[in-house]
Amino acid sequence: MASKDNTFFLEIVSPEGIVFEGEVEKITLETNIGEITVLPHHVSLFTKLAEGEVTILADGNKTHIAVAGGFLEVKENKATILSDYAIRAESIEIAKAEERKRKAENVLQEKAENTDFILAQKDLRKSILELKVAQNVKRRHTNS
Amino acid sequence: MATNPQLLKRRIKTAKNIAQISKAMEMISASKIKKAQNKVLNNKPYAQKIVTLTSSLLHNTDKSSLSNPFLRIPDMEKKSLIIIISPDKGLCGSLNTYITKKILELSVPNTKIVAVGKKAEQFCIRMGFEVLGVFPMGSSIPSYNHVYNIIQIIQKEYNENNISSVKLLYARFNSVFSQEVHVADLLPIPVAQIESVPEYLYEPNMHDIISDLLPYYIEVQLYHSILEAHTSEQAARMVAMQNAKNNALDIADALTLSYNKSRQERITNEILGLANNI
Fold first, then answer.
1. pTM, whole model, 2 decimals?
2. pLDDT value at residue B65
3. Could you tell me the CA-to-CA distances from B30 to B35, B88, B143, B194, B236 in Å, in that order?
4. Are residues B266 and B5 in contact, defined by beta-carbon separation less than 8 angstroms?
5. Candidates A33, A80, A119; nearest CB to B203
6. What is the CATH architecture assignment of A4-89?
7. Burial of A5 by CB count in 10 Å (0-12 exposed, 13-18 middle, 19+ buried)?
8. DSSP letter assigned to residue B163
9. Pick from B240, B266, B71, B46: which is nearest to A17 by CA?
10. What is the domain partition of chain A in residue ranges?
């Protein structure tokens, strides 16, 4: 068990609820200007996240979470990730993501109305992201 | 009491039918409320986080240095925009009455209105208010679609400097038995007074982040209010239907009693008649 000194509190919140909550040792995430790693006692930081993967190291175990953009706030040894959509890599269902991707592509091809178009675009990006993260995790599994 | 047994029988049947229908509606609302409540509970931490983040960010920064239209100091002479969120349908107790009362309280001629839900729409049009847009509330969990459209209206009006503030009027969900009509300020963004927060390091820079964060803030606030309004509607309907069911059953009981009484009376009279004839 890691001592309190070299961990910090991480919270990942999405509209579907709290996706992750707990003491962690390190997180790596993608921002708009490149990948950053946050360690305990990081200086107060506010940044925008890009769509991508958040890798969490807690108690020596790695957890992967896909986030569809959002914000990161680090303050007083506490990090908060706010995201439109966040899902743990384990709970990504590849078949479902593929299905959604296909559906979104269809909508986009039909040149739907304004809002439908935006929603479909969002869905498409979300599903592509999920597939990417799921594949990454799978590859790492087979490598190790 | 009416003593015509045929008539009484018909009335008993009517009361029982009403009880059955309101029981079905109660059960529909009860199942919807569970889903809606979950959605609200899950959404709550996110909404709260966005609100605290935004207000702590704004607290820390000098707003006049930013050119974001949402932060502009409004011209108080201008009208304010009220977004009214109401149910599409009635049969939900006094919820609609409270909402319309609140609208009348707020609606000095100095307002523009966006109505979500048919009840608000009908009321505002009847009263001759300036309605900029109407959206249906729907009977299942509201989707994000309307939020985009509403935001487009807000942005247009705000950017053109047509309005000074944006308010939300919706029924806040306290519990199944208590909902209150609540008015929240959406724009200009209220800045909470918080004790000194450490200076942030902004990446890439503060200006970009704030202009990215503010649309999120509005979106989330709006969607959360719509969700809460939906939950309140279902809760109010469930309680109203429960009462309606109980009342209908009470009436059916009372009518059955008088039906039986009149039937007994008739039989007694008939027997008496027969006995007299012998």
1. 0.82
2. 63
3. 9, 18, 20, 40, 10
4. yes
5. A33
6. Sandwich (2.60)
7. exposed
8. E
9. B46
10. 4-89, 93-143
